[in-house]
Amino acid sequence: MQKPRIYSVGADDIKQGYVTDIYFRRTRRILEAKGKCGTRVRAEFHAYSMPRGYEWAVFAGLEEALAILEGRNVSVYAMPEGTLFKPVEPIMVIEGDYCEFAELETALLGVLRHETSIATKAARIKLTAGDRVVLFFGLRALHPAIAPMADRAAYIGGLDGVAGSESSDFIGVKPTGTMPHALIIVFGDPVEAWKAFDEVVEPDVPRIALVDTFYDERFEALLAAKTLGDRLYGVRLDTPGSRRGNMRRIVEEVRWTLDLHGFKNVKIIVSGGLDEEQVALLRDVVDGFGVGTSVAFPPSVDISMDIVEIERGGSWVPVSKRGKWPGMKQVYRCPPLEDEITPWGRSPERLRCEEPRPLLSKVMEDGRLLVDLPSAGEIRRYVLEQLSQLASGSSG
Fold first, then answer.
1. Checking phi first, is residue 207 left (phi over 0); if not, alpha (psi -120 to 50) or beta?
2. What's the pLDDT score for residue 264?
């Protein structure tokens, strides 16, 4: 009888190119057999299109890409992780012998595409939510092997917290959460469950009562407030899509009832099936949101890798397949998001600000890291700064 197994691979297998599309392995074997290994190329990573309605994306996954490439005889140019970018713009370039990284393309694209897609969706939701707190509750939608990646990508995309218990080890963020319906169902009584939570869980954890398990949300919210008093930070209304009726009206009823009985300080958190649309509809009547599947399974930002230059006779020659722009490129920016793509080494001609900023710089040389990697918190602040400029239409 076959024993059950967990279908995942380790970091070493990823770095060694074990996880790859078979045609890359065959390509390397062909190049070796025909004496073509040693051909130096510049390979560019970019997204020539965005999901419908998207004008920009958040570049995420650079740290993991560099971890995969570290020790290889390649150099890497990249935008800073967390940079907002637009279609066609290069976000990363690998320079070196193609055989050195051919089998890594699958892993590199998977890392960059998935993390960028999550961070971008998170940023769009946070931009919509404004000053309302947004927490990521999406790990149950994903394979547990990639939980740290998803938490990191959602956090650097701008969300205010993550629920994964591993997040403090990987990204230095204390996990944030409330309570599940299971706790209340096992007790059989929401009051007993709320009291037990208050008695057992550390005092620095905010008391947020789930108030839609057995009874009307308005009734349970008031019951929670009377049960925990000043110790109650907030109430959570979960799974808006599972109930008939107007969720905004339900929230307004809960808020009215709490205020009427002197519990104006109690926050209202809404979770369950939320994306930008629902956040926009509720942001003025709630204090925070929990988002899950919409961020964990976002529209894909389809990043691809293409060779754009090849070394011939000691010189770099522009080249590309049909439909792609040949040649190595730089992206210059005037805030908030006025960009110009130029051939590498040329200055911008159309930008209007005094000092357009070049976005790509060398971050790895011959497999050796050249820069100090920012923390997840630093990347998040960088993303939020760009989102703030975007929201205000700042030109400076």
1. beta
2. 97
pLDDT of residue 395: 40
Picking from 198, 209, 202, 203, the residue whose alpha carbon sits closest to that of residue 263 is 209
Which tokens hold the place of 201?
Answer: 């869980």
Domains by residue range for the chain, with CATH? 11-118+300-392 (3.20.140.10), 126-296 (3.20.20.70)
Give the C-alpha separation, 151 to 45, whole Å.
Answer: 23
What is the DSSP track for 101-120? HGGGHHHHHHHHHHHHHHHH
Burial (CB count within 10 angstroms: exposed 0-12, middle 13-18, buried 19+), residue 327: middle
- pLDDT by residue (tens digit) across 179-228? 999 999 999 999 999 999 999 999 999 999 999 999 999 999 999 999 99
Query: Which phi and psi angles does 83 have, rounded to 5°?
Result: -70, 135
Partner residues linked to 291 by β-bridges: 136
* Spatial separation of the C-alpha atoms in residues 234 and 237, rounded to whole Å: 10
List helix spans (H) across 274-340: 276-282, 293-296
Average confidence (pLDDT) over 68-77: 99
What pTM, to 2 d.p., does this model score? 0.95
